[in-house]
Amino acid sequence: MFRTMTRVPGGLMLIPLVLGSVIGTFAPAALDIGGFTTALFKDGALPLIALLIFATGTQVTMRTGGPVLATTGVVLLGKSLIPGVLIIGLGAVTGPEGILGVSILALLSAVTNSNGGLWLAITGQYGRARDRGAYIAGAVNDGPFFTLLFLGASGLGQIPVVAFIAALVPFVLGVIVGNLDAQWRETLAPVPNIVIPFFSFALGAGIDLGEVASGGLTGIVLGVLITPLTGGLVYLGYRLLLRRGAESGIGFAAGTTSGNAIATPAVVVAADPSFQAYAAAATPQIAACVLVTALLAPLMASWALKRSGADPARDEAAEAAQAEEAQP
What we know:
Layout (H helix, E strand, L loop, with lengths): L1 H6 L3 H16 L8 H7 L3 H14 L6 H30 L9 H8 L4 H11 L2 H5 L2 H6 L3 H6 L10 H20 L1 H7 L2 H15 L3 H6 L1 H25 L23 H8 L4 H33 L3 H15 L2
Family: Belongs to the KdgT transporter family.
Protein name: 2-keto-3-deoxygluconate permease
Pfam family, one: KdgT
């Protein structure tokens, strides 16, 4: 089963995510029986992601720290900042109603954030340590932050600084531990393959396929556009700014919508009730984007890498082996 899952682009996350959403939609009571079952398969996503973040931090050495920060900046630029500015520009013309039935609230919520767990899954399968370390971008743009930031002119600019600090602490601790003790770094290296299927199932259990369906054609079309457009911007950043050449295809892994974005309209409405009129339509549209982009991003990233003949993960492993052999 494991070999089959790894043959599917992003399969370690995608297959459990879809399975969890099916069970969470049609048999949710099965996950509510309590005990270890509920703790692992319904409520386990956050602690498992936190463990993955810590383990990822241990793999970032002082040698790779600079590239990690550069990669993180490129991901944020292509995935959040440029799209956010463009959406706000559209809002200046159309007003909060947006375009073609998709409000500015829905656009900002779905477009400017990314699925950090899926990024880790894809970069764990195809990328280098610097790519996996750039999960920090997902910690920053996941949830309502950029939506509130870009709507700040409307009085919604309450930036949750403490939340970002809390998201970064496991990663920073991991970096410290991994640089102080190489044995910890080696011990935690297999963590991604262990925890990704489990937290993916738990995330999927929170996605109601009924809400995805009610998002209709607009949500599906938006999801189809998000991966090539925002992932394409990150791809260009990889190629033009990071000079990653044939490895730039990994940038398409950023073209996703985080599951946490489904709650963003409610957060915005709590800050400014005037957005209530748009929240009802925005929520199912965003849910559709979560599922559609989770399907498309791994496919586009793997296609782009295969087309260029690149395998960053394999090359990095070979380089590490050569470095060990060269040591006296």
